[in-house]
Amino acid sequence: MTDSVADSPLSRAIRNSGSSRKFIEGLNTPFPLVNYTPSMLAEDPIVQLLLGALDEVLAPIISVLDCYDAYLDPRLAPLDFVDYMSSWLLASQVEYWTEETRRASLASTVPRSKWRGTVISFEERINSLFGVSVLVTDSGKVIANSQFTDPDLWEESASPAVLVAVPKSSDAFVSLEMIREALQAVLPAHVALEIRVSE
């Protein structure tokens, strides 16, 4: 089977990765078709062979439907389906991340979405993915004034930027490039990102 141009990279990856949702040898069906066949046909050996073959084909489909709730749980879903759900929820995934990191990224996407783009979300993202406590500061601020002021007198705002301070002790366990990739996916496009190793 050749890849279609219209296929997404994710669907091609899932198809070529050897997903477990396929024929599974020896998987029994909870609803054998022979039980729903008129007795006159059910005793025919050819009909029994045909229905047995159909049972083998349908058994994985029934198994997937029976386990549907597990497919929606990042802790239990097959890894290729975790990547697929991540594309639904815009949860970033990096190829070389471990399975645990990819599952953690998806599991924390929805709770973190209400804080998306804030300092808290960046700190929690790095902590949940890599177990590293970083200090994030941003250039954003709000100035309120109850009196009218001339806009020409307003101070010039700094270019939006985020500074991430990574403890020196954690540098051996996680690279700065891994932290950059994890944050770049959730950082607003117009905001500059700087990562430093702190003492």
Notes on the structure:
Strand 2 (161-167), helix 9 (176-184) and strand 3 (192-198) form a beta-alpha-beta unit. Helix content is 42%, strand content 9%. The chain contains nine helices and three strands. The chain is elongated and about 95 Å long. The protein has helices spanning 9-16, 39-42, 45-66, 68-71, 79-89, 99-107, 109-113, 119-130, 176-184; strands spanning 135-138, 161-167, 192-198. The chain has two domains: 9-66, no CATH class; 115-198, GMP Synthetase, Chain A, domain 3, CATH 3.30.300. Helix 1 runs antiparallel to helix 5 and helix 6 runs antiparallel to helix 8 (119-130). A three-stranded mixed sheet has the order 1-2-3, with helices on one face. The protein is mainly alpha-helical and 199 residues long. The longest helix is centred in the first third of the chain and has 22 residues, at 45-66.
Specify the oligomeric state.
single chain
Shape: elongated
Fraction of residues in helix = 40-55%
Radius of gyration: 26 Å
Number of strands: 3
Enumerate how many helices there are, as a single number. 9
Just name the CATH architecture of the largest domain. Answer: 2-Layer Sandwich
Could you tell me the CATH topology label of the largest domain: GMP Synthetase, Chain A, domain 3
CATH secondary-structure class of the largest domain: Alpha Beta
Q: What distance separates the N and C termini?
A: 55 Å
**Which regions have little confidence, pLDDT < 50, spanning 5+ residues?**
1-6
Report the sheet-strand fraction. 5-15%
Question: Going across the major beta sheet, what is the strand order?
Answer: 1-2-3
Biggest β-sheet: count, sense, barrel? Answer: 3 strands, mixed
Q: Which structural class should the secondary elements be placed in?
A: mainly alpha
